[in-house]
Amino acid sequence: xxxxxxxxxxxxxxxxxxxxxxxxxxxxxxxxxxxxxxxxxxxxxxxxxxxxxxxxxxxxxxxxxxxxxxxxxxxxxxxxxxxxxxxxxxxxxxxxxxxxxxxxxxxxxxxxxxxxxxxxxxxxxxxxxxxxxxxxxxxxxxxxxxxxxxxxxxxxxxxxxxxxxxxxxxxxxxxxxxxxxxxxxxxxxxxxxxxxxxxxxxxxxxxxxxxxxxxxxxxxxxxxxxxxxxxxxxxxxxxxxxxxxxxxxxxxxxxxxxxxxxxxxxxxxxx
Length: 271
Description:
By secondary structure, the protein is of the alpha+beta class. The chain contains seven helices and twelve strands. Helices cover 24% and strands 23% of the residues. 25% of the residues are buried.
């Protein structure tokens, strides 16, 4: 069953589902067979001059939403004295001020995939392709790690493609965009910086295709992200996981909520 939405499916932004979508999208954009099946002939068009490599960005986070330790099994509540039943007539002193039970953060190693288009032979990185995660869009180690990578790319001769399919969080910094949009794709060619192309679109829109920047005078393949996501939705059987009678995990604006409700009712997915 295909996704009921013409563009981005807001239910896929659920933190419980997005890691799977993110991983599948990264693989789909780099895998030759999948691209042929879903009509995004990226890898075949890059051959034989370029190839696509899957890379990982690794960092540690200790945010409040990470796993925590330090909760004891038993808490002593008596603020005066207690009697040790195993040693009769021996009083055990208890401090007048009892400690509070707290939790402490433990570091978690996070691995985020991204793509690099490299030149065959020299393995020079020509284009970096990143699909943003929720960690990239909120303050903390995840955003810091991504921004460090981003600044390094923007200060180099490497092209950058930045795909943001998440409404929540703070968008990555660009200048000259005075509009408020749900989603965005940034295509930054090294030879044109600081000018870059921003594809801004909303929930009601089909996800725009965009040319993959390569070196000057090279033919640029068109990335059909909408088709890729349609394939991911189908292969992942997300129609069996998502309950369209409920609201998306990430809150919609009033206008978007009304539009989503009308769309799902029209398709028979909501009463």
